Amino acid sequence: MNRATNNEMTWFIKRLIDIRNDVNRTPNHIADIKFDYREIISQKIIFGKMDKSLAQRKVCDMLALVKNDYTFLNSLDHFDERRLVYEILSTDGDILIKGYQMEVLEGYMKKIKGEKKVDSKSTESRIIIRKDNGDFYINEANGERFLNLKKNSLYYEAFVAMYSLIPDGGTISFSEYKGSASSRIKRGFLNKTQKKQGAKINSYLNDKTNGFLRASKINDSKFKDGRSLIECNPVEGTIFFNNKK
């Protein structure tokens, strides 16, 4: 599993703070809290598609990031490192989190927000799409976002055909694209001129009513180089994918 993003950690730590606030204990006293792994499953926009085991693992991985951040922990005034543990309960599969004082949670939230400010100043506000087990994620200014695409749709198959050839961006010809496309996509190109093939590709990828661009909710205006995410040139018979940082 990939390392948790700032966006994922922000949501998770904030949720733990909310749960800890409901515990009737002095903020810096030790208090065990119970986290429902199903909350991760329900947050598809942030975490993507998760089943029970993946959600439990994600929670444990995020808690491990805090537990193993010795620079952060050593900066705190009061904490007991031995109590920063967690376990998956055999009864319902929830995660019991032990020893997380408010100082730890609130301090880590400040750390995350500080990292976000550094990232926003040092990197250009660009987006990049990555693939993981058939799902696609986009890296935006506020963190990584899961693209909620219908895998049985033509726009999904059309995008996969292009992405499989140039995952890091670049340019391909119509003939290269057709060689990578599914049989459903290929049927749309039968007996069509190059111009009409370009129009068909655009309808799958860039159409504002039922194409990939609309389904993924990507705003082309975020690109600072003046180019769109996907550009189809029917004159040259090429497709350009703007997927470089």
Please characterize this protein's 3D structure.
It is a single chain. This protein is α+β, with helices and mostly antiparallel strands and 245 residues long. The chain folds into two domains: 6-122, Arc Repressor Mutant, subunit A (Orthogonal Bundle); 129-241. It contains eleven helices and nine strands. Helix 7 (154-165) packs across helix 8. The longest helix has 21 residues, at 102-122. The protein is elongated.
Helices and strands in order:
Blueprint: H1 6-21, E1 33-35, H2 38-42, H3 44-47, H4 52-67, H5 70-74, E2 85-88, E3 95-98, H6 102-122, E4 128-132, E5 135-140, E6 143-147, H7 154-165, E7 170-173, H8 174-180, H9 183-187, H10 194-205, H11 212-216, E8 230-233, E9 238-241
Antiparallel strand pairs: 1-3, 2-3, 4-5, 5-6, 7-9, 8-9
Helix pairs in contact: 1-6, 7-8, 7-10
Apparent shape: elongated
CATH class of the largest domain equals Mainly Alpha
Structural class: alpha+beta
> What's the CATH topology label of the largest domain?
Arc Repressor Mutant, subunit A
Distance between the termini: 23 Å
**Strands side by side in the biggest sheet:** 1-3-2
Q: Residue share in helices?
A: 40-55%
**Average pLDDT level:** 81
Number of helices: 11
Series of secondary-structure elements, N-terminal to C-terminal:
HEHHHHEEHEEEHEHHHHEE
